[in-house]
UniProtKB/TrEMBL annotation:
It comes from Candidatus Competibacter denitrificans Run_A_D11. The gene is thiL. GO terms for molecular function: ATP binding; magnesium ion binding; thiamine-phosphate kinase activity. Its EC number is 2.7.4.16. Mg(2+) 4 binds at residues 30, 45, 75. ATP binds at residues 121-122, 147, 214. Keywords: ATP-binding, Kinase, Magnesium, Metal-binding, Nucleotide-binding, Thiamine biosynthesis, Transferase. PANTHER family: THIAMINE-MONOPHOSPHATE KINASE. This is Thiamine-monophosphate kinase. It catalyses: thiamine phosphate + ATP = thiamine diphosphate + ADP. Substrate binds at residues 54, 263, 319.
């Protein structure tokens, strides 16, 4: 007998091992009853992943479950928020129990790491797989990291090594050849991004602005510049390139990949000069690394420069669904 929608929910989505004390009523009713702390702001974010747009339909479902939550946790990290709850809307062309079991394993393994409880959602039949996940987190009043706080003179920093996920995607399309020893690591960067929750929490009171890198470093930094009404100067020679990216592409192509490819889910943030020493102390303990790549300027726009001062030009800034 085919699995019903309600059996699917009970067997795979409601059967999670994690429960939080601030969930008065979770999956199983018309809505969840949640108890947010009185002294915290609620941060809400939502991302949708569509088969063969945001992920290959043949992607390992365990990695896909991880990524569906990770991309939302990355948004919470960029706000300096502590994760709490999630809701999931899942559209499937057919019910595949093996696929569902693996998808939920990846989703709930990451959820347990960050104490996130799935509290509701929806399942439906449709022509292709669509995953919409909404995440909720908490941040104390006036401590949220926002995009509108950057000021001239602030340093610009990035975690990790942007461009690795883009390298994996380029390899999948046959545009580049990645060495055998690098394939697994760059593929994991594309399919199993690590949300920088610890870094986002640590940056409260230190960073003046922050954004997560989902559509390309240059484009996402541009959101900070627009919201803060400032400009920036980046030294492309300071971009932190992974060994895999440096081995695969020449210098200029690697810079371009690091600046414009999406799906990195690293943090880009700005820090006032008086907080740079505090940041250095914090970042020394981060396993993802942290690199200063530029400075906020009063003059609007993003200027990219080489070590000799010459401009580095971009034909595009990053990913755009409708371009």
């Amino acid at each position: 007998m085919p699995l019903s929608e309600f059996t699917l929910i009970d067997r795979y989505l409601a059967a999670q091992s994690l429960t939080r004390s601030d969930v008065a009523l979770g999956i199983g009713d018309d809505g969840a009853l949640l108890v947010p702390p009185l002294d915290q702001h609620l941060v809400v974010t939502l991302d949708t992943l569509v088969a063969d747009v945001h992920f290959f339909a043949a992607t390992d479902p365990e990695r896909l479950g991880h990524k569906a939550l990770a991309v939302n946790l990355s948004d919470l990290a960029a706000m300096g928020a502590l994760p709490a709850w999630a809701t999931l809307a899942l559209t499937l062309p057919q019910i595949d129990e093996v696929w569902l079991e693996r998808f939920c394993r990846g989703l709930f393994d990451l959820a347990r790491r960050y104490n996130v409880q799935l509290v509701g959602g929806d399942t439906t039949h449709g022509p292709t797989t669509v995953i919409s996940l909404q995440a909720h987190g908490f941040v104390p009043p006036n401590q949220a990291l926002r995009r509108d706080g950057a000021r001239p003179g602030d340093g610009i920093y990035v975690t990790g090594t942007p461009g690795d996920a883009g390298l994996a995607l380029a390899a999948a399309y046959g545009q580049v050849a990645v060495a055998a020893e690098d394939r697994d690591s760059v593929q994991a960067r594309l399919e199993r991004p690590e949300p920088r929750i610890a870094q986002g929490l640590a940056l409260r009171g230190i960073a003046s602005a922050a954004v997560d890198i989902s559509d390309g470093l240059a484009q996402d930094l541009g959101h900070i510049l627009e919201r803060s009404r400032v400009g920036a100067r980046l030294d492309v020679g300071q971009l932190p390139l992974s060994p895999a990216l440096s081995r695969t592409l020449d210098c200029e192509a690697a810079w371009l990949m690091a600046l414009t490819s999406g799906d990195d889910y690293e943090l880009c943030f700005t820090v006032p000069p008086q907080q740079s020493a505090a940041l250095a102390t914090l970042a020394a303990a981060w396993d993802c690394g942290c690199t200063r790549i530029g400075v906020i300027t009063e003059a609007p726009g993003l200027r990219l420069s080489r070590a000799d001062g010459a401009d580095f030009q971009l034909e595009r800034a990053g990913y755009d669904h409708f371009r």
